[in-house]
Backbone:
Protein backbone atom coordinates (compact mmCIF):
# COMPACT_ATOMS: atom_id res chain seq x y z
CA UNK A 1 0.00 0.00 0.00
CA UNK A 2 1.24 3.40 -0.89
CA UNK A 3 2.17 5.50 2.11
CA UNK A 4 0.37 8.84 2.19
CA UNK A 5 3.55 10.88 2.36
CA UNK A 6 4.92 9.20 -0.76
CA UNK A 7 2.15 10.89 -2.68
CA UNK A 8 3.72 14.23 -1.75
CA UNK A 9 7.07 13.23 -3.26
CA UNK A 10 5.32 12.04 -6.41
CA UNK A 11 3.40 15.32 -6.62
CA UNK A 12 6.66 17.19 -6.24
CA UNK A 13 8.25 15.43 -9.21
CA UNK A 14 5.20 16.15 -11.35
CA UNK A 15 5.17 19.81 -10.27
CA UNK A 16 8.86 20.30 -11.03
CA UNK A 17 8.40 18.75 -14.45
CA UNK A 18 5.48 21.01 -15.30
CA UNK A 19 7.53 24.06 -14.28
CA UNK A 20 10.43 22.97 -16.47
CA UNK A 21 8.09 22.26 -19.37
CA UNK A 22 6.73 25.80 -19.11
CA UNK A 23 10.11 27.43 -18.62
CA UNK A 24 13.32 25.40 -18.91
CA UNK A 25 15.21 28.05 -16.90
CA UNK A 26 12.63 28.29 -14.08
CA UNK A 27 14.74 26.65 -11.37
CA UNK A 28 18.04 27.88 -12.74
CA UNK A 29 16.84 31.47 -12.42
CA UNK A 30 15.32 30.96 -8.97
CA UNK A 31 18.52 29.37 -7.70
CA UNK A 32 20.43 32.58 -8.44
CA UNK A 33 18.72 34.40 -5.57
CA UNK A 34 15.54 35.98 -4.30
CA UNK A 35 14.25 39.53 -4.13
CA UNK A 36 10.65 39.24 -2.93
CA UNK A 37 8.66 42.43 -2.53
CA UNK A 38 6.45 41.10 0.24
CA UNK A 39 6.79 39.60 3.68
CA UNK A 40 3.73 37.59 4.70
CA UNK A 41 2.98 36.95 8.34
CA UNK A 42 0.12 34.50 8.42
CA UNK A 43 -1.48 31.72 10.42
CA UNK A 44 -0.09 28.17 10.30
CA UNK A 45 -3.60 26.95 9.42
CA UNK A 46 -3.35 24.53 6.48
CA UNK A 47 -6.27 26.23 4.75
CA UNK A 48 -4.46 29.54 4.32
CA UNK A 49 -1.52 28.97 1.96
CA UNK A 50 0.09 32.38 1.39
CA UNK A 51 1.23 31.90 -2.19
CA UNK A 52 -1.84 30.10 -3.51
CA UNK A 53 -4.42 32.59 -2.23
CA UNK A 54 -2.38 35.54 -3.51
CA UNK A 55 -1.45 34.00 -6.85
CA UNK A 56 2.24 34.54 -6.19
CA UNK A 57 5.03 32.41 -7.60
CA UNK A 58 8.15 31.06 -5.92
CA UNK A 59 10.50 33.99 -5.30
CA UNK A 60 7.74 36.57 -4.87
CA UNK A 61 6.71 36.27 -1.23
CA UNK A 62 8.77 35.74 1.92
CA UNK A 63 6.70 33.84 4.45
CA UNK A 64 6.47 33.52 8.22
CA UNK A 65 3.61 31.58 9.74
CA UNK A 66 2.66 30.79 13.31
CA UNK A 67 -0.50 30.12 15.27
CA UNK A 68 -2.85 33.09 14.84
CA UNK A 69 -0.35 35.23 12.85
CA UNK A 70 1.21 36.80 15.89
CA UNK A 71 3.94 39.43 16.07
CA UNK A 72 5.52 38.76 19.45
CA UNK A 73 8.45 41.06 20.01
CA UNK A 74 10.37 38.50 22.06
CA UNK A 75 9.92 35.79 19.41
CA UNK A 76 13.39 35.29 17.95
CA UNK A 77 11.98 33.44 14.96
CA UNK A 78 9.66 36.30 13.97
CA UNK A 79 12.33 38.93 14.65
CA UNK A 80 14.90 37.09 12.53
CA UNK A 81 12.49 36.75 9.62
CA UNK A 82 11.45 40.40 9.90
CA UNK A 83 15.04 41.60 10.18
CA UNK A 84 16.19 39.61 7.16
CA UNK A 85 13.17 40.59 5.08
CA UNK A 86 13.41 44.31 5.86
CA UNK A 87 17.15 44.87 6.22
CA UNK A 88 18.57 42.46 3.66
CA UNK A 89 15.81 41.65 1.16
CA UNK A 90 14.35 45.15 1.50
CA UNK A 91 10.77 44.06 1.06
CA UNK A 92 8.39 46.96 0.42
CA UNK A 93 5.33 45.49 2.09
CA UNK A 94 4.78 43.52 5.27
CA UNK A 95 1.36 41.91 5.35
CA UNK A 96 -0.19 40.46 8.50
CA UNK A 97 -2.97 38.19 7.28
CA UNK A 98 -5.38 36.63 9.75
CA UNK A 99 -8.37 34.51 8.84
CA UNK A 100 -11.95 34.21 10.02
CA UNK A 101 -12.50 30.95 11.82
CA UNK A 102 -8.98 31.02 13.30
CA UNK A 103 -8.75 28.26 15.92
CA UNK A 104 -6.05 30.11 17.85
CA UNK A 105 -8.14 33.23 18.27
CA UNK A 106 -11.27 31.23 19.11
CA UNK A 107 -9.34 29.27 21.75
CA UNK A 108 -8.03 32.53 23.20
CA UNK A 109 -11.62 33.76 23.63
CA UNK A 110 -12.45 30.79 25.81
CA UNK A 111 -11.26 29.54 29.16
CA UNK A 112 -10.33 25.97 28.32
CA UNK A 113 -6.79 24.93 29.23
CA UNK A 114 -4.81 23.38 26.39
CA UNK A 115 -1.33 23.06 27.87
CA UNK A 116 1.83 24.67 26.61
CA UNK A 117 0.02 26.54 23.86
CA UNK A 118 -1.83 28.57 26.51
CA UNK A 119 1.35 30.63 26.81
CA UNK A 120 1.09 31.57 23.14
CA UNK A 121 -2.64 32.20 23.38
CA UNK A 122 -1.97 34.61 26.24
CA UNK A 123 -0.74 37.19 23.72
CA UNK A 124 -4.10 36.97 21.96
CA UNK A 125 -5.99 37.27 25.25
CA UNK A 126 -4.14 40.54 25.83
CA UNK A 127 -5.61 41.83 22.56
CA UNK A 128 -9.09 40.98 23.86
CA UNK A 129 -8.38 42.89 27.07
CA UNK A 130 -7.26 45.99 25.12
CA UNK A 131 -10.51 45.94 23.17
CA UNK A 132 -12.89 44.38 25.70
CA UNK A 133 -15.33 47.32 25.69
CA UNK A 134 -15.95 47.01 21.95
CA UNK A 135 -15.90 43.20 21.92
CA UNK A 136 -18.11 42.62 24.97
CA UNK A 137 -20.73 44.91 23.43
CA UNK A 138 -21.13 42.56 20.43
CA UNK A 139 -23.81 40.09 21.51
CA UNK A 140 -23.60 37.73 18.52
CA UNK A 141 -20.74 35.32 19.24
CA UNK A 142 -19.87 34.84 15.55
CA UNK A 143 -19.73 38.58 14.99
CA UNK A 144 -17.66 39.07 18.14
CA UNK A 145 -15.23 36.39 17.00
CA UNK A 146 -14.89 37.95 13.55
CA UNK A 147 -14.22 41.37 15.05
CA UNK A 148 -11.72 39.89 17.52
CA UNK A 149 -9.88 38.29 14.58
CA UNK A 150 -9.76 41.67 12.81
CA UNK A 151 -8.61 43.50 15.95
CA UNK A 152 -5.92 40.86 16.50
CA UNK A 153 -4.55 41.54 13.01
CA UNK A 154 -4.61 45.31 13.59
CA UNK A 155 -2.82 44.84 16.91
CA UNK A 156 -0.11 42.73 15.25
CA UNK A 157 0.42 45.49 12.66
CA UNK A 158 0.79 47.91 15.59
CA UNK A 159 3.30 45.56 17.14
CA UNK A 160 5.28 45.48 13.89
CA UNK A 161 5.49 49.26 13.87
CA UNK A 162 6.84 49.21 17.43
CA UNK A 163 9.85 47.10 16.49
CA UNK A 164 13.23 48.77 16.09
CA UNK A 165 13.55 46.95 12.75
CA UNK A 166 10.55 48.71 11.22
CA UNK A 167 11.22 52.07 12.92
CA UNK A 168 14.84 52.12 11.71
CA UNK A 169 13.74 51.31 8.15
CA UNK A 170 11.34 54.26 8.19
CA UNK A 171 13.93 56.57 9.74
CA UNK A 172 16.40 55.58 7.02
CA UNK A 173 13.90 56.55 4.36
CA UNK A 174 13.20 52.99 3.26
CA UNK A 175 9.84 52.39 1.62
CA UNK A 176 7.98 50.01 3.90
CA UNK A 177 4.23 49.63 4.09
CA UNK A 178 2.52 47.59 6.79
CA UNK A 179 -0.82 46.02 5.95
CA UNK A 180 -3.53 44.17 7.87
CA UNK A 181 -5.65 41.66 5.97
CA UNK A 182 -8.17 38.96 6.86
CA UNK A 183 -8.85 35.93 4.70
CA UNK A 184 -12.31 34.38 4.67
CA UNK A 185 -12.25 30.58 4.61
CA UNK A 186 -15.86 30.56 3.40
CA UNK A 187 -15.34 32.38 0.10
CA UNK A 188 -11.56 32.56 -0.36
CA UNK A 189 -11.56 36.35 -0.41
CA UNK A 190 -9.08 38.56 1.44
CA UNK A 191 -10.42 41.69 3.12
CA UNK A 192 -8.05 44.65 3.44
CA UNK A 193 -8.54 46.23 6.87
CA UNK A 194 -6.97 49.44 5.56
CA UNK A 195 -4.31 49.53 8.26
CA UNK A 196 -1.76 51.07 5.95
CA UNK A 197 1.14 52.15 8.14
CA UNK A 198 4.05 53.92 6.51
CA UNK A 199 5.47 55.81 9.49
CA UNK A 200 5.41 55.96 13.28
CA UNK A 201 2.85 58.78 13.26
CA UNK A 202 0.03 56.56 14.52
CA UNK A 203 2.11 55.05 17.28
CA UNK A 204 1.87 56.24 20.88
CA UNK A 205 4.91 58.38 21.66
CA UNK A 206 6.14 56.01 24.34
CA UNK A 207 7.02 53.47 21.63
CA UNK A 208 9.02 55.88 19.48
CA UNK A 209 12.71 54.98 19.24
CA UNK A 210 15.32 57.59 18.43
CA UNK A 211 17.71 56.92 15.61
CA UNK A 212 20.90 55.23 16.81
CO1 LIG B 1 -5.57 30.46 12.35
Residues:
Amino acid sequence: MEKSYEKLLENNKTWAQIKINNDPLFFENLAKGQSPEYLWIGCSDSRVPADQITGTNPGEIFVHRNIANMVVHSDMNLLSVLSYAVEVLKVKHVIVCGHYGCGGVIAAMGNKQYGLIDNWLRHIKDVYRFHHTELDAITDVNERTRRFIELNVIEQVNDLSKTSIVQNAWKNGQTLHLHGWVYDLKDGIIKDLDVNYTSTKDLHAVYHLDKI
Remarks:
- The chain has nine helices and five strands.
- Residues 43, 45, 68, 99, 102-104 surround cobalt (II) ion (CB under 6 Å).
- The mean pLDDT is 96.
